[in-house]
Amino acid sequence: MTSAPAFPIYPHRHLLGIKDLSPGDIELLLDRAEKAVAISRQPEKKTSTLRGRTQINLFYESSTRTQSSFELAGKRLGADVMNMSVASSSVKKGETLIDTAMTLNAMRPDILIIRHSSAGAAALLAQKVGCAVVNAGDGAHEHPTQALLDALTIRRAKGRIGRLTVAICGDILHSRVARSNIILLNALGAAVRVVAPSTLLPSGIRDMGVTVYNSMAEGLKGVDVVMMLRLQRERMAGAMVPSVREYFRYFGLDSEKLKAANDGALVMHPGPMNRGVEIASEIADGPQSVIQEQVEMGVAVRMAVMEALLDPRRDPEGRA
Ligand code: NCD
């Protein structure tokens, strides 16, 4: 794929969060991602758009799907991709994020992809390095490429985002996926609901432009998309749910609860899934599930983001 002049120049140097993007920026990335889907479906998947560019994946939290998705996306664009495995690096020896960033920066990468357990880590890195930075998840703050891939999946299945009703269900409190999705879906004109027990809702959630429900039967009534979230037990200090069995009974998506949604409602999950905790297997593998499509769209969206950020029509400082 060449950097088609047909696409306007993307106006940001980094992708730190959906909150920095206008609806037009979001649509531009989704349109670019459509082209990347076509490339990934060809037998010959390698292009030369980012040939000679260096991409470093700096993952401070373990991740399978997001890291491999960014790696494949870079490789399909022809970039040289390096994975910094934090577990075996000097980070374990006590080096700070900034020192690690400065060291990597001195190697002159063109793009850094970072995942970190602290909110704001990606923005901090962006201030310190001379290359483009992509936030691959920072604490419970944002996960912009996840929201973009979810939007692409919805747009391809339903033909639009505006005027759809989307229910985001489960552990909203710990979820950067929920935050980024709420911002994006609102920006594109969807009606957003959150469905969760009150212990799993952040304070101030009502200020984010969502309608809050504490019952699946009510919250799923008439929705076009049901987005399930993983119960992030590793981030829970105390017992926020009585038991997993109890949680599944009230908040797990099964065929009975899904009946409340519109016919043909999409079922989504960012993964990794806890089958039998937030979602029943029969639903995860059922006809309404687009969970595998989400994974496919993830590679395409990450290709689109990296191409847009490293557009050769920008000057070396990254300005348009
Ligand atoms: C999500 C994440 O890491 O925020 N997963 C992902 O990116 N594939 C959601 C989660 O961990 O539950």
Explained architecture:
By secondary structure, this protein is α/β, with parallel strands linked by helices. It folds into two domains: 14-142 and 296-312, Rossmann fold, CATH 3.40.50.1370; 144-290, Aspartate/ornithine carbamoyltransferase (Rossmann fold), CATH 3.40.50.1370. Helix content is 36%, strand content 14%. It has eleven helices and nine strands. It has helices at residues 23-40, 65-76, 97-106, 121-128, 144-158, 176-187, 216-219, 244-251, 255-258, 281-284, 291-309; strands at residues 54-59, 80-85, 111-116, 132-138, 165-169, 191-195, 211-213, 225-228, 266-268. The strands form two sheets. A five-stranded parallel sheet has the order 7-6-5-8-9. The chain has a four-stranded parallel sheet with strand order 2-1-3-4, with helices on both faces. The longest helix has 19 residues, at 291-309. The relative contact order is 0.16. The model has no long low-confidence stretch (mean pLDDT 94). Bound molecules: N-carbamoyl-L-aspartate. L-aspartate binds at residues 93, 176, 230. It is an enzyme of class 2 (transferase). This is Aspartate carbamoyltransferase. Reversibly catalyzes the transfer of the carbamoyl group from carbamoyl phosphate (CP) to the N(epsilon) atom of ornithine (ORN) to produce L-citrulline. Residues 164-308 form the Aspartate/ornithine carbamoyltransferase Asp/Orn-binding domain.
